[in-house]
C-alpha cells in the first residue's frame, strides 16, 4: 500500500518535471507555429501580402479581418534590413517578432510621426559594428535590434470600413523590405572612416 | 518483476500528469498576467518580450501572432457578464463605451479562432463604422437572425468568442481596473426555448 502511494507520489512529481520541460520546449519544437505556417508562402527578405482573413482561410487563428496584412520574413545573416512602409489613411502599424513569435517591438504611424515609416533592422552585433559617426547621422532613422537572426515583420493597415480595404491593401503592398548591401548613409558621406 | 511494474506505473503517471497539465494550460490558458474587466480578459504582456512561458507555449501551439504592445491590446470574452457562455443561438447585446483608443475592432470567432461564415460577410465592426447613440455609446446585437442597428451574425454556432482590439491605446501592462479601461457590457437578452 505504502509502495503504491510512493509510486503515485513519484509519478506526480516526475509529471511536474515533464510538464515544465514540455512547456518550455514547445516554442522550439512546434511545427505549427506562425513562422512555420508562413514560411512556404512568403518571400525571404521581401514583402508578401497575405490573403484577407475570411472563414475559408485558416492561415492563423484570431486574425483581425479589418486589416490588410503583409509579411516580411527576414534573415539578417547577409546584413541589416531596410524597411519602408507608407502610411495608410486610417492606421498603420509594424510589429516585429522573433523566430519563436516573441513580439519584441511594435510601432504605429503616430509614434513614427511621418508619412512613411522607415526603420533599419539589424542584429545587436551588426549594430555594434556601425561606425560611430554614422550613429549620429542615424539620429533621424530608427534602428531596431533583432534578438534573433531570423524572424517576422508584420505590416498592417486598417480598413476602417469594408470599402476602404483595397486602399489599405495597396498601401501595405507598396511597402519594401530588403537587405542593404551597402549602407546608403556611408555612400553619401565618404568621410573615409573605415 | 514487481520493481519493473512500479517503474512503468510511475513513468505512466508522470507522462499522463505532465502532458495532461501542458495540454490543459495551453488550451484553456492560465491566470498569469491576465487583466480581467467584466467579462473581458486581456494579457498585455504577451505583446512584449516579457511574455510568460505558458503564453509562449500557447501561441506557438496555436500558430498565432500576438498583438504587439506598441500596436494595441486584445480583450477576449467567452461568456456574458453573468458568466453564461456566449451562445450563437441567443440574442446578446454588447453595449456601452470602450477605453480610450484611436481605433478599435470587435470581431466574432469560433472557439478555435476562425471567422464564422455568414451571408453578409460581416465578421465584426470597427469603431468608425459602428452606429452610435447621441452620447457616443453604442449597442451591438449579436444574434443568428438579422436585427436592426449594429447586427453581428453568429451563424448559429453554439459557442463563440468576442475579441475587442484596441489600437494605439494607453491601455496595457499598467492597466488594472474598470476605471482605467471602461469595457462594454455583455448581456444575454433572450434565447429561443
Task: Draw up the topology in text.
The complex is a heterodimer of chains A (194) and B (193).
Chain A: H1 2-29, H2 34-38, E1 47-49, E2 67-75, E3 81-86, E4 92-98, E5 103-108, H3 109-112, E6 116-123, H4 124-129, H5 132-137, E7 142-146, E8 150-158, H6 165-173, E9 176-179, H7 184-188
Parallel strand pairs in A: 6-7
Antiparallel strand pairs in A: 1-2, 2-8, 3-6, 3-9, 4-5, 4-8
Chain B: H1 2-28, E1 35-37, E2 40-42, H2 53-62, E3 72-77, E4 91-96, E5 103-110, E6 124-126, E7 138-143, E8 150-153, E9 160-167, E10 185-190
> How far apart are the termini of chain A?
77 Å
- Distance between termini of chain B? 60 Å
Of all protein chain pairs, which has the greatest interface, and how many residues does each chain bring to it?
A: A-B, 62 and 63 residues
If you consult CATH, what is the topology of chain A? Immunoglobulin-like
Radius of gyration of chain B: 20 Å
Query: Could you list the spans of chain A in which at least 5 consecutive residues all have pLDDT below 50?
Result: 184-194
CATH topology of the largest domain in chain B: Jelly Rolls
How is the quaternary structure best described?
A: heterodimer
CATH architecture of chain A: Sandwich
Number of domains of chain A: 1
Helix fraction of chain B, binned, reads 10-25%
In CATH, the homologous superfamily of the largest domain in chain B goes by the name Domain of unknown function DUF1214, C-terminal domain
Note the run of SSEs of chain A as H and E: HHEEEEEHEHHEEHEH
Secondary-structure element pattern of chain B, one letter each: HEEHEEEEEEEE
Number of E strands of chain B: 10
Question: Given the C-alpha coordinates, what overall shape of chain A results?
Answer: globular
